Amino acid sequence: MRTQSPSSDLDFAGPVVALIAAAGSGERLGAAEPKALVQCGGQPLLAWSLAACFESKVVDRVVVAAPVSHLAQVSELVSSIASDNSSRVVVTAGADSRSGSVKAALASAVETFGQPAIVVVNDAARPLVSGSLIDACVAALGDADAVVAAAPVVDTIKQTGAGNVVVKTLDRASLWAAQTPQAYRYDVLASALAVPDDQLKAATDDALLVERAGGVVKVFSSVEPNPKVTTAFDLAAVELMIGSGSS
Ligand code: CTP
Ligand code: MG
């Protein structure tokens, strides 16, 4: 039985912790400050995913991985947003790779709040995530080791070899673009992340590490738009979506 609020219909043998990966520099965005602190729709980008974690009916605790260089600023921002939720959230230093930051956040979660049952990983770079998407992700876990929010691929995907010559057209019906949130059983994620730094650096998401370790990873359709802010164009597009009430 979960003992912490908020209440939910979903029962787990322990708490649910959400990790927010916010420690990237945002090189491709090219802003003067880390991407998580860049203004998006009237507030810093990180504020959107943090609010979604607080809105969730299943998330008990939240850990934000922040750039080491901006720990104080991120802590200040999180405190200003958390209000009644301040005892449920902690900020920790990230690492030099995304999965390294997730690993650091997971260690901080265990140290601060104790071992969770379920871990939900979110990128601060996806501001349109909602509490209900996080809840749907956790609910979709079922008997799997991990579940990943994803969008069906709409383009036809070509695989190329030398000289950009197409060697294969992949079957689009079975292709998904992976996003966050991603929900994991704690022990599965902890052991998947217990790999050398070069493997953490090469991983584009943590589910890849679970797949590699032989775990069962499922996808579920995120349905609503859930884009990642990577470039200045993405930021402008997401701001239009927020402005038009799509969030
Ligand atoms: N991230 C992180 N720690 C890192 C690198 C990335 O926590 N060392 C986080 C980012 O803050 C972001 C998410 O992982 O929320 C997805 O990464 P990405 O979109 O690549 O963000 P950045 O790494 O910041 O951007 P870039 O690759 O352009 O530098
Ligand atoms: Mg990056």
Characterize this entry briefly:
The chain has 247 residues and is of the alpha/beta class.
Write the layout of secondary structure elements.
Layout: E1 16-21, E2 39-40, E3 43-44, H1 45-55, E4 61-66, H2 71-82, E5 89-93, H3 98-113, E6 118-123, H4 131-139, E7 146-152, E8 158-160, E9 166-169, E10 176-185, H5 186-192, H6 197-202, H7 206-212, E11 217-221, H8 232-243
Helix pairs in contact: 1-2, 5-7
This protein binds cytidine-5'-triphosphate and magnesium ion.
Question: Could you explain how this protein is built, in words?
Answer:
The chain has 8 helices and 11 strands. A hairpin with a 5-residue loop joins β8 and β9. The strands form 3 sheets. A 7-stranded mixed sheet has the order 5-4-1-6-10-7-11, sandwiched between helices. It has helices at 45-55, 71-82, 98-113, 131-139, 186-192, 197-202, 206-212, 232-243; strands spanning 16-21, 39-40, 43-44, 61-66, 89-93, 118-123, 146-152, 158-160, 166-169, 176-185, 217-221. The longest helix is centred in the middle third of the chain and has 16 residues, at 98-113. Residues 1-9 have low confidence and may be disordered. By secondary structure, the protein is α/β, with parallel strands linked by helices. The protein binds cytidine-5'-triphosphate and magnesium ion. Residues 21-28, 35-36, 65, 94-98, 101, 123-125, 228, 230 line the site of cytidine-5'-triphosphate. Magnesium ion binds at residues 24, 98.
